[in-house]
Amino acid sequence: MSMTDPIADLLTRIRNANQKAFEKLEVPHSKFKEEIVKILRDEGYLKDYRILKDQGRSLLKISMKYGDREKRVITRIERVSKPSKRVYVGHDEIPRVQGGFGVAILSTPGGVMTDRQARTARVGGEVLCYIW
Fold first, then answer.
1. Least crowded by CB within 10 Å, which of 84, 88, 113, 125?
2. In this predicted model, what pLDDT tens digit does every residue of 10-49 receive, in sequence order?
């Protein structure tokens, strides 16, 4: 199976794990996915992550996060820019997700960052996904 959109795959796996209230999930590691997962952790949507080396491949082992009584921390996670239709914004057009309650993750010349970080750094880029 060829992976045409590894970011969509990552988000789908997180979405599915969240729906089924899984504690942990593993996805193939890449530096780019690690940057996204790090932001999700820093923004409070994931508990943590580790990089595992297994027979020459590396995996991202992600610990999901839930509130009291398995309350979902992630309400929705959606891919914005796709290989078929890339979505780019200038620093002055960065969307606010759910009135600022959610987070947009962007790939910018300065690396992968949240909408707030990108606004502060005054850089635009490709809108990878929204999460709230």
1. 84
2. 999 999 999 999 999 999 999 999 999 999 999 999 999 9
Q: Number of folded domains in the chain?
A: 1
Burial 94-131 (b: 16+ CB within 10 A, else e): beebeeeebbbbbbbeeebbbbebbbeeebbbebbbbb
Taking residue 19's Cβ as centre, other Cβ atoms within 10 Å add up to 10
Look up the pTM and report it: 0.93
Q: Which residues contact 19 (CB under 8 A, 6 or more apart)?
A: none
At residue 1, the pLDDT reads: 46
Domain with 65 in it: 6-131
In the prediction, which pLDDT does 110 show? 96
| Cα separation, 120 vs 122, whole angstroms | 5
Instruction: Give backbone dihedrals phi and psi of 117, rounded to 5 degrees, phi first.
Output: -60, -40
- Give me the CATH number covering residue 24: 3.30.1370.30
Side chain identity at 113, as an amino acid letter? M
